[in-house]
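Hi! If you just cloned this repository, the fastest way to understand the data is to look at a raw example. We've pasted two of them here, unedited. The first protein comes first, obviously.
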Amino acid sequence: MQFQLVQVAEPQTFEPVTCLFQSAEKNRFGESSVQGYALPTGIVMRFPRIADFWLCPGKIHCELHDPSLEFMVEICLLGHVMAYYLELSGLAALHAGAVVHGEKAVLFAADRTGGKSTMVASLVKEGFPLLADDISALTAHEGTVYCRHGFPQMKLTPEQVERFVGDFDDFPLVHPSFAKLSVPASRVGEVQSTTLPVACIYLLERGLPGKPAGGAERVRIEPVAAGEAMIQLVRHAFLVQLLDAHAHCRLLGQAHSSAKQGLKASRFHLLARITQSVPVKRLCYPSGYEYLPAVHRAIEADLAKPAADASVNRHKNEDVVLASASRWESALR
């Protein structure tokens, strides 16, 4: 994929009818902080007063509005823009970290402040190669779900850097207003740069300090029913709110005549296939670094279970997932 950055004197004006979405979050000027437009030449993701990102098959072209905000280009590109480009390319961009275990990808999804960064960093430190830190790009082919590798960078708090790296080494802030630092993943542990089949997706539920998750002291791993698993995958999309506006938006490079379904329906069917093919489990554990070794052991023990067990559960859940997808498709027509 090609990336091009240019500076423009004035941003282009787009007709209101071309607007796909406007985020509820506003900037200090009262404008939606993220906007999307569908134009004949491609899809544009606009960050008002910062930059426009033009998304085309195999290319992202960035027009910078304000040179003093050039540092925001990387932040936007490696977050919203890349997730949007992946979704428009037919992949599912989950807000999840991924590590490697036994030549397979293991994903960890959580709500904000849910412990994902700590979990992933701790596993990488213990020898699980990093595959993706914040955005896990998934695709399905002939019954197997694959996870692509992400950018080899981790966003960690100073406390996490001190614990998993050992020194700050003048790591830059991800954003002047954020506490997290941008850390090369190789400073934490090994990095994997290949596409791997997915073994499992864990939904993290970390207890509050002094209050174990689920009311239990021990680490618990339990399967998630097909219907709930589907809901959770939809909820953990990196751009879940923005993608709700894309019922009739085409994928990148897809002509009107070949568009059988919009992006929203297309990605829902992909998530349904992922739910059919990959076990989704809830991982409950107490808060605190001292519990992480026990959590690691529980994860390894769970992954060591025969794959046949997961296969049986997937076949039992298949009818439920397909029925949900069918109802969703009808609602989109």
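Ok, and the second one:
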Amino acid sequence: MPHAQVYAQRDRLLAAGLLTQVRQESGRGRLAEHRSITALTAGVAIGCGLAAFGAALAVSLRLMYAREVRRRSLPAPLPIPRAATAMP
């Protein structure tokens, strides 16, 4: 992401009150997130990860079950007839 877009996003977050600017002793400006927003974001990320894992698990189990049902519904292959005597 270009620097101009990063700074524009930072300004929008500052204006919305989602970030605060803190001055350090050295005089440099440092951005600090509000802890409640950080905790909320972490909770949402964990929830989304669990939901995605559950969805992938459900799809995998459904595919495995469908393959097994299809395999069991097919007729058994016919045996290959073998010659009774050995061929020279």
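That's it. A detail worth noticing about the second one: DSSP finds two helices and two strands in the chain.
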